Amino acid sequence: MLISLPMRTYALPRLAPRRLLAVLPLLFACSPKGDDTPVIGLITKTASNPFFVKMKEGAEQAAAAQGATLIAAAGRSDGDNAGQVTAIENLVAAGAKAILISASDAKAIVPAIKKARDAGILVIALDSPTDPVDAADALFATDNYRAGVLIGAYAKARLGATPAKIATLDLIPGNPTGAQRHNGFLSGFGLPSYEKSRNELAQPPEVVCMTDTMGDQAKGQTAMENCLQAHPDINVVYTVNEPSAAGAFNALQKAGKHKGVLIVSVDGSCRGVQHVVDGALTATAQQYPLRMAELGVEAAMAFIKTGKKTSGYVDTGVQLIAKDSVAAVPSLAADKALGLCWGDK
Amino acid sequence: MNVRRLAFAGPLVALLLACTFFALQSPRFLTGANLSLVLSQVMVVGVLAIGQTLVILTGGIDLACGMIMALGSISMSMLAVKHGWHPAMAIAGGMSVTTLAGMLNGLLVTRIKLPPFIVTLGTMNIAFAATQLVSRAQTVTDLPPLLTWLGNSVRVGNTPIAYGALAMLALYALVFVLLRETAAGRHVYAVGNNSEAARLAGINTNRLLLSVYMLSGLFAGIAALLSIARTGVGDPQSGQTENLDTVTAVVLGGTSLFGGRGLIVGSLVGALIVGVFRNGLTLMGVSSVYQILVTGVLVILAVATDQWSRKA
Amino acid sequence: MMVLEARRLVKRYGHVTALDGADFEVRAGEIMAVIGDNGAGKSSLIKALSGATIPDSGEIWLDGACVHFRGPIDARRAGIETVYQDLALAPAMSIAENVFLGREHRRAGLAGSFLRLIDRTSMQREAEEQLRHLGIGIRSITQAVETLSGGQRQGIAVARSAAFAQHVVILDEPTAALGVKESGMVLDLIKRVRDRGLSVILISHNMPHVFELADRIHIQRLGKRAALVRTNEIAMSDAVAVMTGAVQSSTSGASG
To answer: In which region does residue C223 sit, left (phi positive, over 0), alpha (psi from -120 to 50) or beta (all else)?
Structure first.
């Protein structure tokens, strides 16, 4: 007689992906050194955006050089405020003396930051400002609006008198960084635009195609393809970041139009700068995530050692990178910029 | 039989109406070049949706397919570029990774008896994290030509059609035949429609479900290759919206989320509907926010029509 | 000669003893009804005979040979078909597909052996024949099962078993969910199945139906066979009395 085996069911704990990602690094962050190693927290918007990955690496190196431990955390996606709030709470519990944060939601993060500051922790905003700006002790950031102005001015100077037919490949509706770059670009180009504080995207008639890409290369390609179908005579393309610019270039190349069209972007990653050298990208505004991280760690250490708080706004710099220089708009030559770029080459 | 015909006709009619509408709005819509473009734009989601349709037909769901595709994309490209594998082996390697991921899903569903929603929610995050760790968030470039070959086109008359788009159509035809004309295909429907009846009829439901999840993984691998072919790079950020895009395509195509009902070709129509709207609205100069709004409305209309046609 | 026989079947689920040394027998071409109160062990007995569960001890004999079923498929292969209470039909699939579910015909030649393509036309034709033979009326063999009435669905399930059974067809509460007219149709259908030479085991709590159909009645009580009687030798009220334990039967054990 054969016996049939009963089937067992197993119960597994509920998975909470957002919290998990925010907390996971803390589980592996135990310091082998003594209790007096200072702890600095770094919270980025996402764990996957190369910009933040490089920022994190820079912060880790700077912290190690100064004899501190860096604990890094991130939200699940761009805009995940809840994940960042949880990260702040966990970092406070883990004994962080200073927290560097690139906030996904400038307003919603403020109460959590206030709590941390009330507990005597230094909180510095990196890359993205809080709203109001003085909700954090200090801000080390790129001026995204200025980044847009630089590439807008450059594009206009290169275009000259030719009537502009512009396509803008933006991030997602309502995102402040995307809005600042877009509106800055139009302003630099000399077209009517919105001021820095507005989150809506301006669309003067010269912008014949305005579409979203989520900063993704494949979506950038699709957006450019469709724009070209509607307006084959587009001669200027603004892209919110270099991955979407790469996608736009692919589309232009497939349509055989890449020679006559100016593509500009923001980032200054090594891949992007290489594209400028190769001619796949006309100009880009370079930002310096590593500098933000270093300045952040320096300020944190100064606070931990001496109790002196940093305050105010430090512009970590934005530099226009282009292959061909234009008199009116100073730029750094692309091959020189390769030494300053961030990311893998 | 009438109900089945109506269920398929619905999405097709919607697609034709949409095409007619956009053709009237812009003279550029109905050109060969533009339509071929739409085909290329939907080919990645289209192929992914094949695997999703199979899983949904069995009464499950695969929330991880986009992330698994990204993992496959990074695996293939890094094996070829960073580890110097022969491109054909790199492609095979990438597809093995995705098929194994599918097998993991299948084993968790059949052996540990966890609901597919929970399983794939978990593996979605695991695949995402694995992709970021392996790639260090860097896009992989300078790929050998074999990896991007499917992005090349063949000329039909005056119109270029990407090989990848043709591959997608061929895969749909193949799966259509398998589902309709083989016993295993009919068993997929039976398991989704009444899994207890299938078991009592002698069908090895565990083996069937495991195969279906592995196939979903394999199609994610093929989609990864198509994604590489389209963009020319291995992108660790890809696949994040595709998880739900495939479900949208499947639902728009008339397949029931409860399992056991639906046509594979419907998912192709569903993917095309989304692609046509995205393309058509851009041609009309309508902002992307409205594209998202329209997709949402369409999904609800699709499900409502499906319910209504069933009662009629 | 007994087609199907069982001796001293025991089945326990934890502390509950469902079968406590139960016996069973059915002859060729007879309709044996199995009646019993809730908890008497009817379902467990039937599950043991149909291979759905494996008894802890005891023996089952089919056509004089001892058999051990490891699952329902084994019983099916041995020629015992079961129609479960919920019918085990896939509602969205067609009648023909349901009849041949798990046993699809393959096409001739390479198309069938290598490509494993199914032969839809032959399955539809055969299914139509089976239904016609048993007098079950339907509009089209390709219509979905969910478009059929309750009685028609029952008919399909019974016809499926009858088509494939070689020895025994087990029916679990076939008329429980049906109205008067449809029950009548199903009862006629069961008689036709018996007329084919198959044995029918009928579980039912509907006494009038039992007494209309069955040749003999197996009365199950407290995990054992309490009585085995010819239908025409017992009154309905007495059968119920034995079933509920109001009366101790003097005829427990094989009879006739």
So the answer is: left
- pLDDT confidence tier of residue B298, bands split at 50, 70 and 90: confident
Query: Any idea which residue has 């199995």 for tokens?
Result: C34
Least CB–CB distance from A209: residue in B37, B139, B282 = B282
**pLDDT attached to residue B22:** 94
Give the model confidence (pLDDT) of B145-179 as tens digits. 999 999 999 988 888 899 999 999 999 999 999 99
A-chain residues near C68 (CB < 8 A) = 1-2
Which residues are within 8 A (CB) of A108 and not within 5 positions of it... i.e. 6 or more apart? Answer: A81, A85
Q: Are C52 and C72 in contact (CB under 8 A)?
A: yes
Residues of C in contact with B202 (CB under 8 A): 72-73, 76, 102-103
Which segments within chain A are labelled E, that is strand?
39-44, 69-74, 98-101, 122-126, 138-141, 166-170, 207-212, 236-239, 262-267, 283-287, 312-315, 318-322, 332-333
- CB distance C116–B194 less than 8 Å? no
Pairing outcome for strands A283-287 and A262-267: parallel
Task: Decide: C149 and C182 in contact? Cβ < 8 Å.
Answer: yes
- Using CA coordinates, name the residue in chain B closest to C97: B186
Residue A33 has pLDDT above 60, yes or no: no
For residues B208 and B214, give the distance between their C-alpha atoms in angstroms, rounded to a whole number. 10
Nearest Cα of chain B lies from the Cα of A273 at a distance, in angstroms, of 14
CB B15 within 8 A of CB A199: no
Has residue A203 got a pLDDT over 90? yes
CB contact under 8 Å between C86 and B4, yes or no, is: no
Could you tell me the pLDDT band of residue B267, with boundaries at 50, 70 and 90?
Answer: very high
- Name the band, by pLDDT with cuts 50, 70 and 90, for residue B7: low
CB contact under 8 A, A4 and C54: yes
Q: C93–B1: do the CB atoms touch at under 8 Å?
A: no
Distance CA C119, CA C106 (A): 5
Q: Where would I find the H helices in C41-93?
A: 42-50, 72-77
Confidence of residue C245 (pLDDT cuts 50, 70, 90): confident
Flag whether residue C102 sits within 8 Å of chain B, measured between CB atoms: yes
Predicted model pTM: 0.84
pLDDT tens track for C72-81: 889 999 999 9
Mutate to test the interface with B, among A57, A166, A171, A217 (most CBs of B within 10 A): A217
Type of residue numbered B125:
N
Q: Round to whole Å and give the CA distance between A200 and A179.
A: 6
Min CA distance, B39 vs chain C (Å)? 30
